[in-house]
């Protein structure tokens, strides 16, 4: 018999209150009004406001609360703009380690998805291994064989995991609302928005068809790259809850002794992995955001094989140019330029005190770049930078935080392979080529062209926008004391667009001063007509 939803929620909240109270955070539970009498008594007898090892206790609390909360903690570990650095580093230790689902539940999920038996004459697969080869909180992987003899890996979502996660998300949203209400001094943390961001991410991981699309796109991006492979997706055997791909054979990239015994050059493997990561970041703007060692294999022929594309990061060209410009300034020890790059990208307010910002960046960068080359960590630089830029009102950039998290992992992988490896230096030829192309004169011209095209598009949309406003006026949704002349407004909008287009064309094609003045005059006349009242 299933308990009513409200009762289950209240029992869950009571358990959360108990766990907080018994991990030195009774004061937090009291302020959140969780199981108030009990946690108040615990706080009274314990007498501590917060434990000294706060990060450790938060990690232990999340581990006890289960997979959804563990994943939330893993996401928070990247948010050094929200958490103290020591707490964020402690949360990076959270492990998504759960026992596998029973085979009967796996069978039920597959048979319900495809409306066929698992195996047999009318079955989905010719053979299916009951023992999973990997298990995580959302899904687990089994080996199988198709009827044409192809060997495949089948990722199966856990039975009812969607319902469990939605229930936990409801609890997290409630807790975020309570935190926002009873801790007004921490409104800057934007707890409800953080939960919404997390909910979007974890719901995306639930859709294995979306993961298949990611894998397919990575396969296309790497199609012409030698020495890199992505398992082929078997679309006829893929569903929202089931993902079937080509079975790969290889050695996990962190098993150095096995790789060396097989004759692989670990430094070259490290260089190839680093180069491909930065190729994803800078060339494609689309990167694997879960690159732990279990998701990177080395084939017998030395190919790097990427698997598991549940989490991906996306960077538009503006973000890529920002990252390249910022890192180049740091590597050249030009901290003023590093500060200016942030302002130019619009990540910090234009009125920011550049001198103070320069000092703050120098403070975090000098200790890192004073180390031996092998110990320089770009991921640590980004981590520290995101922590300090909050003081200068830098808006949160989720895509950059995801990049920083991935860089921490890939740097760890590199050091497992080669003790003295520095992924930035290993990938330097590819990055230098990209920077020369996109940060040099050609790249700057392209950036200007993109900006001009954007402005021109906005001008071209102006008549339609004005016409929409006029329609609202005619319908009585907007009123003026003196109703404008429709003809003058529309004509003004057209002249403004024409003048703006002339200015853009003149700037791009060096049309001369006369044409620039004429275009400016036409655009000015258009503004006058548009703003006139008949």
TrEMBL record:
GO terms for biological process: ubiquinone biosynthetic process. The keyword Transmembrane applies. Keywords: ATP-binding, Cell inner membrane, Cell membrane, Kinase, Membrane, Nucleotide-binding, Transferase, Transmembrane, Transmembrane helix, Ubiquinone, Ubiquinone biosynthesis. GO terms for molecular function: ATP binding; protein kinase activity. Residues 92-431 form the Protein kinase domain. It comes from the Bacteria. Pathway: Cofactor biosynthesis; ubiquinone biosynthesis [regulation]. The keyword Amino-acid biosynthesis does not apply. Belongs to the protein kinase superfamily. ADCK protein kinase family. This is Ubiquinone biosynthesis protein.
